[in-house]
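Replying to the earlier thread about multi-chain prediction with a worked example.

Input:
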Amino acid sequence: MWSRFKRSRGAMAGLFCIALLSLFALIGPALSPYTYDEVSLSSQYLPPGAPSEEYPGHLHFWGTDELGRDLWTRVWMGTRISLYVALLSVLIDLTIGILYGVTAGYYGGAVDLILQRILEVIQGIPTIVIVTLLMLVLKPGLVSITVALVFAGWINLSLLVRAQVLKLKETEYVLASKTLGASDLSIIIRDILPNAAGQIVIMAMMSVPGAIFLEAYLSFLGLGIPDPMASLGSLINSGFKSMLLYPWLVLIPVIIFVLLVVSFNLAADGLRDALDVTLGTSEDR
Amino acid sequence: MEDNNILEVHNLKISLPVREKRVMFIRGVDLSLPKGKILALVGESGSGKTLTARSLMSLLPKAARIESGEILLKSKTGDEPGTDLAKLSHARIVNTVNARRIGMVFQDPLTTLNPTMTVGKQLAEGYKVHEHRFAGEAKKRALELLASVGLPEPERCFKQYPHELSGGMRQRVIIAIALSLNPDILICDEPTTSLDVTIQARILELLKKLQAERQLSVLYITHDLGVVAEIADIIYVMYAGRIVEEGSRSDILYHPAHPYTWGLLSSVPDMSFKEERLISIPGTPPDLSSGLRGDPFAPRNAWALPEDFEEEPPMFRLSSTHAVRSRLYDGAHTPPPLPENLARRIGNRSSAAEKEERHD
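Result:
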């Protein structure tokens, strides 16, 4: 499978970008002497590459914001948050979403009926209401975003998985496996999931931008990452206010954000093609 | 249970829910499969052939229910009396009967193989071994099996995905998988319907060869009487969930008795009669869910008797092998002669068969 994945240039580029962004998210803040919340009122709105006042010999790589905070540090701190949210949403999709969808689709009947009604109730409550209510017991921050995603992030994928399972369990190869005495678990793992894998991967990856946006949106409402902590979403939001005068404040986080989303989508495409054995074989490609 | 029968079905009734009502789709089927013979179950779509076959392997749709009847399966050695599959649990049948006693070959080789697994992996599934242990003796046996179903390069085929094989090759792989655990009964559910004619002939040859080599008892389900003539030892004709005629190959093909069998035989295209109009059976199969009264075939039957509309006829024995569900043979009526065009065809065919025999 890896050899098939490698053959797709787009997918490799995506994977490379994700790796690079993750690396910088890890070490980026350490490359600058500033912390993400260090305020310096004398160095507001410095352009990218401006020399640092406090630390001679150092540069503000990407300039500073309205409070003189170093944008480089803040962007990479924000990338950490966004990557965390992205991984979390994929993980939730792949665990809760698949389990829920497979159970509902494969066992059908009363099980399906009950699971689908529960799902509809959850789907019916707007995420924003849940997060607002959570504020009664939690401080705004990563925990509330995590809870919001765990609560409702898997619904679309579970619906897709259920539909796929409903379709695939009627196929003749499932019936043929039954004539060979295969157990339900082995049918699900060997016959159903591999044949739905392409769709599942795409859907899980498509939920990444959604989750990152959700985080940005919650931060904007003051329900997500609180200031002075930064996320790509909140950086874009605050940079947007002074976009015409200080364009780098919005451009840089936007570029990072776009790179992140695009590379996730490219990698997902490659992964889907790598999983689809009918798209050419090791011999003829 | 008779001695030479490996499988007997007695008065099997299966119902399915239709609009909140339970409708009997199999209305009392009796069937005996002698050891080492090929039994063809013939009928139109919806006559219940497939449902009957699936009931043997506990593969009925979830909503279906076996209402009554027994399915007796004799043990492999034949020394014990038969087990009643209708009374066994689903898990028991899946673990002890399926694949080990009864193998099944399906209609469409395009969809019966899992497109995401190599042929080898799917064979491994048949052998019930984990792939990474699928080496040495087991793999050797699997390769032999692939060779025995006539696949030219077993080693290569082993590593291929289903989409890299042709329809005929796929059907061979499916047959190999069905035989992987050495079942003594093989159910073939229209295995050649979706193949083209030349491949069809080869698959039939293969099935006959395997049947002879392995002493398989085969239940062959089809609506194609051409195939039946090719392969069957015994023929059962099914209509609306019941057997309407049973007999040996020559009984059914040369001395058909039931008007429905006449209709089926006359509707087979025959190349030796160019100018002839193809005859079909008038009307459509009955809607079983609207309730039945009398013989379900009576409305389509030109020879129906008044009492057929009141009550379904029982089976009448014509000879030790031949039986028919029609009052025309109850002794009180004179059976009508064969329809003229059918008589002509049969005459033509039997003289051709005789000629062939003389050639041999």
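Chain A has eleven helices and two strands.

Feel free to reuse this layout for your own posts.
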